[in-house]
Amino acid sequence: MANSAQARKRARQTVKRRDHNVSLRSKLRTAIKFVRKAIESGDKSAADTAFKNSMSTVDSVADKGIIHKNKAARHKSRLSAAIKAIA
Predict the structure, then answer these.
(1) CATH number for the domain whose boundaries are 5-84
(2) Could you name the domain of life of the organism this protein comes from (predicted)?
(3) Is residue 87 helix, strand or coil?
């Protein structure tokens, strides 16, 4: 347990920050899942719309440092390739 006032405050801040980061990471996963479901349905226009809507979420989470920018780029690239592969 934290003994100094500074350590107690840092512990409080860490809990608060963790809750916020977990929330953002969940939002990211939901956005990606939404695009994947649209891709699986086979409707290219719906998948493209879902992709465009969710990419702002991916970029936002990467900008805040919740995930690495390369991981965000990888998600975007793979989802984009999957959409292009829809016949």
Answers:
(1) 1.20.58.110
(2) Bacteria
(3) coil
